[in-house]
């Protein structure tokens, strides 16, 4: 809608995790370094946790894209699975034909044979689970049993868990202490600080093809940091709405008023006072409606 107006080739603040927009900010680079060191060690579980929207899925995809050919990866993006479903999903990710498998014991044996064959080819097998806080307790235990599979030299499979802070609460339960003790490396993602938010916005605009003077003024960036709490997903939502508002008003940049309007229209943003919310939200709807009319050539 506003791409041509600002000289953009793509939407800079889309919510879909896109590794083409990956930016080497400290928390994300540190998380990747921990993962790379842990995977080279070849032992146990690795855990990365962070609040909703802090970039876990993007880091997960970046890791998968950057793994060398010596690694074989089984990726489970939605792990709300029973132990049986988990084993079947792992088997399918490892390229195992499960059509002739009749029971769970046989399935476990087939998986072990496949892991041994890959290990004989000097392959390291990594099981990566996103949204791991959704795993039932018995499925977490099934994961632990996967890491019991080993040769005399090394484990046959490593497990990387990406999850929200609730994952730490789950793992603190006494019945999961055996799994907890096998977590050899962990990292907790933090939100971005104010300087990182400004750099993040500039980077995404540059990747999208923007050229020219800074599109967001200093006050707008400060309010963007405050309203988003440094959470990348909220930064994207607020910045996208601010661009729509600026475009709808026929303006060339983003100022504090645009960010305030976007904050008032976004539920999880750091809120304004109650009466300010109604004022800014109503104004936002009017301006966004006008921007749609402009886009369609009706004004």
Tags for this model:
single chain; 299 residues; alpha/beta; 5-stranded parallel beta sheet; elongated
What does this structure look like?
The protein has 299 residues and is an alpha/beta fold. It has 13 helices and five strands. It has helices spanning 3-6, 26-41, 56-66, 83-93, 104-120, 137-146, 166-171, 177-181, 194-207, 218-228, 232-248, 256-264, 274-295; strands at residues 45-49, 71-76, 124-129, 157-163, 183-188. Helix 6 (137-146) links the parallel strand 3 (124-129) and strand 4. Helix 4 runs parallel beside helix 5 and helix 9 (194-207) packs across helix 10 (218-228). The model is unreliable at 274-280 (pLDDT under 50).
Let me know the number of strands.
Answer: 5
Report the helical percentage: 40-55%
Biggest β-sheet description: 5 strands, parallel
Widest sheet: strand ordering: 2-3-4-1-5
* Pattern of helices and strands: HHEHEHHEHEHHEHHHHH
Total helical segments: 13
The 3D shape can be described as elongated
Unreliable sequence segments: 274-280
Radius of gyration: 23 Å
Q: How large is the share of residues in beta strands?
A: 5-15%
Structural class: alpha/beta
Mean model confidence by pLDDT:
88
Q: How far apart lie the N and C ends?
A: 15 Å
């Amino acid at each position: 809608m506003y791409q041509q107006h600002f000289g953009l080739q793509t939407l800079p603040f889309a919510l879909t995790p896109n590794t083409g927009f990956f930016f080497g900010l400290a928390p994300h680079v540190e998380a990747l370094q921990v993962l790379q060191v842990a995977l080279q060690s070849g032992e146990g579980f690795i855990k990365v946790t962070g609040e909703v929207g802090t970039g876990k899925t993007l880091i997960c995809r970046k890791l998968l894209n950057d793994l060398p050919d010596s690694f074989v990866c089984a990726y489970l993006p939605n792990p709300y699975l029973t132990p049986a479903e988990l084993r079947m999903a792992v088997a399918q990710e490892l390229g195992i034909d499960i059509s002739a498998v009749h029971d769970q014991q046989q399935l476990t044996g087939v998986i072990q044979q496949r892991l041994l064959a890959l290990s004989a080819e000097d392959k390291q097998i990594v099981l990566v689970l996103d949204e791991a806080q959704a795993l039932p307790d018995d499925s977490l235990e099934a994961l632990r049993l996967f890491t019991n599979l080993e040769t005399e030299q090394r484990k046959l499979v490593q497990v990387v868990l990406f999850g929200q802070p609730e994952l730490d609460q789950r793992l603190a339960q006494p019945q999961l202490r055996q799994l907890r003790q096998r977590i050899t490396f962990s990292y907790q993602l933090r939100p971005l600080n104010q300087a990182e938010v400004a750099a993040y916005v500039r980077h995404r605009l540059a990747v999208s093809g923007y050229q020219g003077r800074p599109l967001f003024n200093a006050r707008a960036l400060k309010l963007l940091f405050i309203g988003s709490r440094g959470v990348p997903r909220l930064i994207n939502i607020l910045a996208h709405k601010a661009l729509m508002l600026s475009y709808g008003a026929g303006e060339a940049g983003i100022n504090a008023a645009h960010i305030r309007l976007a904050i008032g229209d976004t539920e999880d943003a750091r809120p304004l006072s109650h009466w300010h919310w109604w004022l800014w939200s109503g104004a936002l709807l009017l301006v966004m409606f006008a921007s749609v009319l402009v886009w369609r050539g009706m004004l």
